[in-house]
Amino acid sequence: MQPIAAPLLQWFDANKRLLPFRQEPSAYHIWVSEIMLQQTRVAAAIPYYERFIAALPDPAALAACEPDALRKLWQGLGYYNRVNNMQKAARIVCEQYGGDLPADYDALRSLPGIGDYTAGAVASIAFGIPVPAVDGNVLRVFARLYNDDADVMAPATKKAFTVRVLDQMPKATPGPYNEALMELGALVCIPGTPHCEECPLADLCRGYAAGRADQLPVKPAPKAKGKVPVTVALIESEQGLLLQRRPARGLLAGLWQPAAWEKALTRDELTAALAGIGVQAALDEPLPPAKHVFTHKIWELGGWKGTAPACALPDGYVWAAPEDLAEVYPVPNAFGAYVKAK
DNA sequence: CACGCGTGGGG
DNA sequence: TCCCCAAGCGT
């Protein structure tokens, strides 16, 4: 394979987007943006990034943030464990590195939530350290460039591609090189039907030469998602909406939701379940059926809307007034059919 | 290595 | 409408 760096970097200079985290690319800014961008589109992450940096401008502020306030900043972005890990990492940064991210790949890689990709991105983009940052974009670009049919989801393939990425890297400008590969993947070498006619690497691309760039990269067939019934009780008292906190681990960990059970309950069973937490509810109106598709399962939501007298609640339950629902309690968008918490 | 873990936009 | 996903990480 001929060197790709020169045409790639020239294209990047002329075509890179002016993204907020490229304005003042401190290590903290790059870190926050890279965590947000994991499995997330740039357009979706930008407003979250702006708000997050304004509220928590440095690792010390992140380390000290109250958990519910932190999750509220992340509400709607998904993969909530990312922000929990980021706070753990911020505390380590404050305790062990004086409040600044370490300019060292292995030290970055050891922090919670920072894997091979993010360590490489922060090290190369923020610190100019010549290490690769291989994400889904880079895997797609290289699968096409080398006309390689290997399953890009397999860890072994990622390792082999990482060697090629490092071989091609101009050691003086690792950050722009890594960013340029990702930007090319995001703008030109896109999934499905790539824009090969405007690609700066088309002359070198073996997949293009073979006329099969649109068939790459190869990924395994997706697995079927299981369907899970969820019965929701949307209960209002004069003190607000009944919310419960989800378990600290697993799906939507630690977030708040209207009282709900991951099984199909009849109206009478739901009334009894609510009585079990001290809530004497009148269930007046069925909720419209709704569906929420996660990466690995599908919630089939239903239930009842009703009212109840305000009462004392067990730990992990609250009556949430409208302003607290909007500003205090992070509620996942999985319940968006019934609750608007933004 | 395989799986759990969110969400909203585009074809 | 449905299906594809998008700058991955932890276990």
TrEMBL record:
Segments forming domain HhH-GPD: 36-187
EC number assigned by the record: 3.2.2.31
Reaction(s) catalysed by this chain's protein: Hydrolyzes free adenine bases from 7,8-dihydro-8-oxoguanine:adenine mismatched double-stranded DNA, leaving an apurinic site
InterPro entries to which the protein is assigned, alphabetical: DNA_glycosylase (IPR011257), Endonuclease-III-like_CS2 (IPR004036), Endonuclease3_FeS-loop_motif (IPR003651), HhH-GPD_domain (IPR003265), HhH_base_excis_C (IPR023170), HhH_motif (IPR000445), MIG/MutY (IPR044298), MutY_C (IPR029119)
Domain of life: Bacteria
GO molecular function, one term: oxidized purine DNA binding
Keywords: 4Fe-4S, DNA damage, DNA repair, Glycosidase, Hydrolase, Iron, Iron-sulfur, Metal-binding
Cofactor(s) needed for function: [4Fe-4S] cluster
Keyword Cytoplasm listed: no
Pfam families the record matches: EndIII_4Fe-2S, HHH, HhH-GPD, NUDIX_4
GO biological processes: base-excision repair; mismatch repair
This protein's record includes keyword NADP: no
Details of cofactor binding: Binds 1 [4Fe-4S] cluster.
Xref: Gene3D superfamilies: Helix-hairpin-Helix base-excision DNA repair enzymes (C-terminal), Hypothetical protein, domain 2, Nucleoside Triphosphate Pyrophosphohydrolase
Role according to the record: Adenine glycosylase active on G-A mispairs.
PANTHER family xrefs: ADENINE DNA GLYCOSYLASE
Family, similarity comment: Belongs to the Nth/MutY family.
Protein name listed in UniProt: Adenine DNA glycosylase
UniProt source species: Gemmiger formicilis
